[in-house]
Amino acid sequence: MNYTGVSQVLSGEMEGQATSVDAGDLMLFRGRDALHRVTPTLGETTRMLVVLAYNAEANVALSEPARMTFFGRLE
């Protein structure tokens, strides 16, 4: 984790890097390890998000808050 770099971006000491994408582009990155944000959608446009997740250990499940975020329910 680059805590120093993140701190510098958040404090304004260093600028982040912008990535140029066009409508319909696909971007893959490890979000929990990347300081990121997205532009807001406009009008009736819906942004599609796909979350790819896996666990290397058996019997590991998503937390309740994560299940609510991804599925909107706990069952």
Secondary structure layout plus pairing:
Blueprint: H1 3-11, H2 64-71
Q: Can you put this structure into words, describing what you see?
A:
With 75 residues, the chain is an all-alpha fold. The protein is 23% helix and 0% strand. The protein is built from 2 helices and no strands. The chain has helices spanning 3-11, 64-71. It is extended. The relative contact order is 0.09. The model has no long low-confidence stretch (mean pLDDT 85).
Short overview:
It contains two helices and no strands.
Question: What labels would you give this structure?
Answer:
75 residues, mainly alpha, 23% helix, extended
- Give the percentage of residues in beta strands: under 5%
Overall outline: extended
Main sheet summary: none
Q: State the end-to-end distance.
A: 33 Å
Structural class: mainly alpha
Q: What's the helix-strand series? A: HH
